[in-house]
Design a protein that fits this description.
TIM Barrel; 12 helices; 9 strands; globular; binds ligand C2E; binds magnesium ion
């Protein structure tokens, strides 16, 4: 109860912050993108992870405010790096609840312009489980977003129990293999993941491996044909200034 009350006005009080987790290109080992991840600096409970407040925010409507903050912060950072001559892509997580807002698209397009953020440097991530709830609505919204020139990523792929053929109705440019598959040790399941990655890549979609925690896992996802990797083995999510020093901005 009290967490819900605390969340009211948390954005206005400056308690929300974006951490960033790097993604490396598995061909060059260079950092090519970062994912923005919400953190709440709670006045008494300390730094809270998204699982403590995102679902609640989706239920009580505060997700619009939090989502707008994360999108603006991500675009501001991305535009700043771009201004330094560093074309680091920025991925921002978006809830399906935000997509239902008729003002979302206009707001985003205005944001890109205000911050002079090149749309091709922004990727919007939506979890597979949220995507499949209402495919026709989501397909329309994502089509409009794709027209803006931003990338569209299917997050936590493999956990939403959707079929690839249904997902193909959506204009996505990237697919993130969920960490459970990346960390799996079962040979048969791994063989299936490898086949899946091949099929997806054949369609010109970029495949990113999430939750890479060890060198073995990094080698494996590279062998699968994943183009990018993200995970604790590369770096944990860190503050904006942490990223700045990592990339020399
Ligand atoms: P996600 O988008 O799949 O983000 C990846 C999550 O996996 C992050 O958790 C990250 O810290 C964690 N992770 C990264 N590498 C590793 C690894 O090697 N091992 C393990 N065990 N975990 C790893 P985080 O930051 O707690 O975020 C959890 C989820 O909350 C995100 O999953 C995303 O779905 C949601 N989320 C985060 N920020 C936002 C936001 O601004 N808006 C919305 N709508 N959802 C958000
Ligand atoms: Mg994500
Ligand atoms: Mg994920
Ligand atoms: Mg997740």
């Amino acid at each position: 109860m009290s967490l819900d009350e605390d969340l009211q006005g948390a954005v206005a009080r400056g308690e929300l912050t974006a951490y960033y987790q790097p993604q490396i290109d598995l061909g060059t080992d260079r950092i090519v993108a970062v994912e923005a991840l919400a953190r709440w600096e709670h006045p008494t409970r300390g730094l809270l992870p998204p699982r403590d407040f995102i679902t609640r925010a989706e239920e009580n409507g505060l997700i619009h405010e939090i989502g707008d903050f994360m999108m603006e912060t991500g675009c501001e950072s991305g535009a700043g790096w771009h201004g330094h001559g560093l074309d680091l892509e920025v991925a921002v997580n978006v809830s399906a609840v935000q997509l239902t807002d008729p003002a979302f698209l206009g707001g985003l397009s205005e944001l890109l312009e205000t911050h002079a953020m090149p749309p091709e440097l922004l990727t919007i991530e939506i979890t597979e489980s949220q995507l499949i709830e209402d495919i026709p609505m989501v397909a329309t919204r994502l089509g409009e977003l794709a027209d803006l020139g931003v990338g569209i990523s299917i997050d936590d792929f493999g956990t939403g129990h959707s079929s690839l053929s249904r997902l193909q109705e959506l204009p996505f440019t990237e697919l993130k293999i969920d960490q459970h598959f990346v960390q799996d040790d079962d040979e048969t399941r791994l063989a299936l993941v490898a086949i899946m990655v091949g099929l997806i890549r054949d369609r010109g979609v970029r495949v990113v491996a999430e939750g890479v925690e060890t060198l073995d896992q990094l080698r494996r996802v590279r062998d699968f044909g994943c183009e990018r990797a993200q995970g604790f083995y590369v770096s944990r999510p860190i503050s904006k200034s942490g990223i700045d020093s990592l990339i020399g901005a």
